[in-house]
Amino acid sequence: MKLKNKPAVLTNDILSHDSMYECLSECMVDLISIKNVNLKVYKISTPDEYQKELLDRLNYSHILKTRSIKAANDSLK
Known about the structure:
Blueprint: H1 17-24, E1 28-34, E2 39-45, H2 49-57, H3 67-75
Antiparallel strand pairs: 1-2
């Protein structure tokens, strides 16, 4: 993973994988699995702005969006 893909504002002190893992270890990762539509989605709940920026620098900001959860919910209707 490359931490330098995007400029940092809040997370400019995160320079190593160890510090990245330490910061993100406070996040809660949820796996949403719906068997009858064969859907598995990961989502991070309650990240702060610092963690959001870090995920954006890693190109993982998509796991913060609720669009996947809405799609899963819509497929059950």
